[in-house]
Write a structure and sequence with these properties.
Helix content: 25-40%
CATH architecture of the largest domain: 3-Layer(aba) Sandwich
Number of strands: 12
Distance between the termini: 54 Å
Strand content: 15-25%
Structural class: alpha/beta
Number of helices: 10
CATH superfamily of the largest domain: Vaccinia Virus protein VP39
Radius of gyration: 24 Å
Largest sheet: 7 strands, mixed
Strand order of the largest sheet: 8-7-6-9-10-12-11
Length: about 350
């Protein structure tokens, strides 16, 4: 099969139509129809084979699916007016409420930054280079730059990457790079012993532990630090009790310790901050149960009484196509199981500081 045109030079306008006949994608290119064997890699890179020729095609961002963290960030911005999704750190002197959420989130950020080496590199008088892995919208990354760190970010989601770039535009005089990939795809060979520290702020849960440590061992300098602030599953996970499946995500805590022992890292700090983080769940639960549920019930009554046939049809269609997903979300968010106490039973939130052994 002849190659009509270099795949790498195709424009979006030239990709006129996409269909899915079985396991192949058929594309109409400039009026020609050719069958492509195609495999989509993570986050928009497609490996295309036409005859004996293989090249890389970047897929438009509109074809990429939004993941759960990206959805949470967007909804958080739209509903709560927050710049980042991570939990707040609540202490006794800070009353629980949405008015104090930004302050609680900043306290969380301060805790992470305080766990890093000094920005000036101490005796070396060189900037400390840090990589923020899963940097979200760049909230912590920007603060690192403001405080004198040489900081890079990594983000897999294109929509979040756009927000990071906009935030970093105010720091274009600072030494920073943004990697748009998963951590598993990070070019570790090109960045061996490059970083004095690597940090994960509620992003470690998305990365397979067995893949994370070998990459960290390559990119973090001997004596450098890895800071992980995230939740893990407790030994109660999977016990079948009410609320067992109300909170997803997180690696098993005991498996983390086992995996850590296989790699050249030492555990310097292991701080349990679950009790300071779990009030976020109470805040969200009260909002869902005391505000959104009554509002939804009121809207349902209005539509049922004023547009009974149309509303019944809409609900039937949603039940047919999205019934399982809707029931799963109802159980997760609206059954009263997603509480502070349930979170503390099934999750343990940790600030972990690891040192790369020499």
């Amino acid at each position: 099969m002849p190659l009509l045109k270099s795949v790498a030079t195709l424009t979006q306008a030239e990709v006129l139509r996409i269909a899915w006949p079985g396991s192949k994608i058929v594309r109409s290119l400039c009026g020609h129809r050719e069958a492509f064997n195609i495999r989509f890699a993570t986050y928009g890179t497609a490996f295309v084979t036409i005859g004996n020729c293989s090249e890389i095609l970047n897929v438009s961002q509109s074809n990429k699916k939004m993941n759960s963290k990206e959805l949470g960030l967007v909804l958080g911005q739209q509903l709560l007016g927050v710049d980042d999704l991570h939990y707040g750190l609540w202490t006794d002197d800070l009353p629980l409420g949405f008015a104090n959420l930004a302050e609680a989130q900043q306290r969380y950020t301060e805790q992470i930054i305080n766990a890093l080496p000094a920005a000036d590199g101490g005796e070396t008088c060189q900037q400390t280079r840090v990589i923020d892995i899963g940097c979200g919208t760049g909230h912590i990354l920007a603060q690192l730059l403001e405080r004198g760190f040489a900081a890079d970010g990594l983000v897999p989601a294109p929509r979040l990457a756009e927000q990071v770039r906009r935030r970093l535009a105010a720091h274009n005089d600072k030494p920073t790079r943004l990697f748009e990939s998963t951590f598993e795809q990070f070019p570790a060979d090109e960045h061996r012993a490059c970083y004095d520290a690597a940090l994960f702020s509620e992003s470690y849960q998305y990365i397979p532990m067995s893949a994370s440590f070998p990459i960290l061992a390559q990119i973090v300098k001997p004596g450098g630090l890895v800071v992980i602030c995230d939740f893990f599953k407790t030994g109660h996970a999977g016990d079948g009790q009410p609320g067992d499946k109300s909170f997803g995500g997180g690696h098993k805590m005991h498996q983390f310790y086992i995996e850590l022992g296989k790699h050249p890292f030492s555990l310097l700090e292991d701080i349990d901050i679950t009790r300071q983080v779990s009030p976020n769940i109470k805040l969200l639960d009260e909002t869902l149960m005391l505000r959104l549920v009554p509002a939804g019930q009121t809207l349902d009554r209005y539509l049922r009484e004023n547009y009974p046939r149309t509303w019944k049809l809409i609900k039937t269609v949603f039940k047919i196509f999205f019934g399982k997903k809707i029931e799963k979300q109802k159980y997760k968010y609206f059954t009263g199981h997603r509480t502070q106490a349930v979170f503390e039973r099934y999750k343990t939130y940790r600030l972990l500081v690891l040192r790369r052994n020499a």
